[in-house]
Design brief:
347 residues, alpha/beta, Rossmann fold, ProC C-terminal domain-like fold, eight-stranded mixed beta sheet, binds NADP nicotinamide-adenine-dinucleotide phosphate, oxidoreductase, P5CR-like_CS, P5C_Rdtase_cat_N
């Protein structure tokens, strides 16, 4: 099958595109995996019906794996057996709490929270969480403590919980730009600190996150945080110096994609589609295209080449995007957001 894929891949994308294959994908090749995929996972034979449904892309080998968003969307994760605390019950805390409950990792009764805004505590109460009067009380009633306040409030809330932190606590900060050094300084040298940069699609079980460890955090803390975030998406461990780039790409990325969906829908409306249908088609197109990248592990450029026939409609659209500098615009957006994240972490 590998040979077949290589042959078809070569025919459909040509030598130039083959050279663009990522080193990681080559590793999958050398590991004798039956499809291009990283991390390498064993390929599963398609059923006849699945094969038929992919008939428009006979060149693609689809890898069914635990990373398959289809599987994720319906999977219920085993219960975590840990109490979760939120210092701050804003948008991200809500997205995480709802995501974890939706996946069955925790139930509302295992969630403790604190927030000065009664509307937010009432909202958390409505799904069974227990609001506490102070951040210290949240820490006393939780094993995993999410620091989910705005960056400027992080030092304050950590100073409040520091006296009650024990060996058994894992402190997970999702605050943009607050470094491990600052977290450890505020929480104390013995704190098990993990810095995570998630994004809001954790609400629908599809976050893209990265983490790094600090203080006394160890492999158990890493496993625990990985388990939590894998229930609501994907998480990668990176060097802290790369977290600004993660912020610029996936932390801020949903806004870029929302803007893209809105613009695509506007284009559809301009071309005569009703607004609701245009928006649904635009969103589904982004979802389906992302799934193709994830499930096949194929280079997105190769997937683009497969749908652009000579003198066809798609290449006409692609030409306009290239004329407008779309690639540079996306790259510049990520770099600008990364620079801003670096600036913020120095303030
Ligand atoms: N939103 C994103 O897409 C995203 C993505 C990645 C990371 N993050 C990070 O996630 C963190 C939270 O962001 P967010 O968007 O969820 O902000 P948010 O909606 O403003 O939530 C923060 C909450 O913390 C409350 N708060 C303020 N001081 C507090 C205190 N001393 N103790 C307890 N709670 C307190 C705030 O209440 P008041 O409003 O009354 O002040 C607010 O309800 C930020 O550090 C951000 O950098 C966000």
């Amino acid at each position: 099958m590998l040979q077949i894929f290589r042959g078809v891949f070569a025919r459909s994308v040509g030598p130039a595109r083959q050279n663009l294959a990522l080193p990681a994908a080559n590793k999958a090749f050398s590991a004798a995996s039956a499809a291009i995929c990283w991390p390498p996972v064993p390929a599963v034979k398609l059923t006849e019906q699945q094969a038929k449904s992919r008939a428009h892309f006979p060149n693609l080998i689809v890898v069914e794996s635990a990373a398959n968003p289809d599987t994720m969307a319906t999977a219920t994760a085993p219960a975590l057996n840990k109490r979760i605390g939120f210092l701050g019950s804003g948008q991200m805390a809500e997205a995480l709490a709802r995501g974890l409950m939706k996946r069955g990792l925790v139930s509302g009764e295992h969630i403790a929270c604190n927030d000065p805004n009664p509307a937010r505590t009432n909202l958390f109460k409505s799904f069974g969480a227990t609001p506490y009067e102070s951040n210290a009380d949240v820490a006393r009633n939780a094993d995993v403590i999410f620091v989910a306040v705005k960056p400027q409030h992080v030092a304050q809330v950590l100073s409040e919980v520091r006296p009650v932190l024990t060996e058994g606590h894992t402190v997970v900060s999702i605050a943009a730009g607050i470094t491990i050094d600052k977290l450890v300084e505020a929480a104390g040298p013995d704190a098990h600190v993990v810095r995570v940069m998630p994004n809001t699609p954790c609400l629908v079980g599809e976050t893209a996150a990265a983490m790094c460890l600090g203080g006394k955090a160890n492999a158990d803390d890493e496993t625990l945080v990985r388990t939590i975030f894998e229930a609501v998406g994907k998480i990668y461990t990176v060097d802290e110096k790369l977290l600004a780039a993660v912020t610029g790409l996936s932390g801020s990325g949903p806004a870029y994609v929302f803007l893209m969906i809105e613009a695509l829908a506007d284009g559809g409306v301009r071309a005569g589609l009703p607004r609701d249908i245009a928006q649904a088609l635009a969103a589904q197109t982004v979802l389906g295209s992302a799934k193709m990248v994830m499930e096949t592990g194929t280079h997105p450029g190769a997937l683009k080449d497969m749908v652009t026939s000579p003198a066809g409609t798609t290449i006409a659209g692609v030409h306009e995007l290239e004329r407008a500098g779309i690639r540079a615009a996306f790259m510049n957006a990520v770099v600008a957001a990364t620079d801003r994240a670096n600036q913020l972490s120095k303030m």
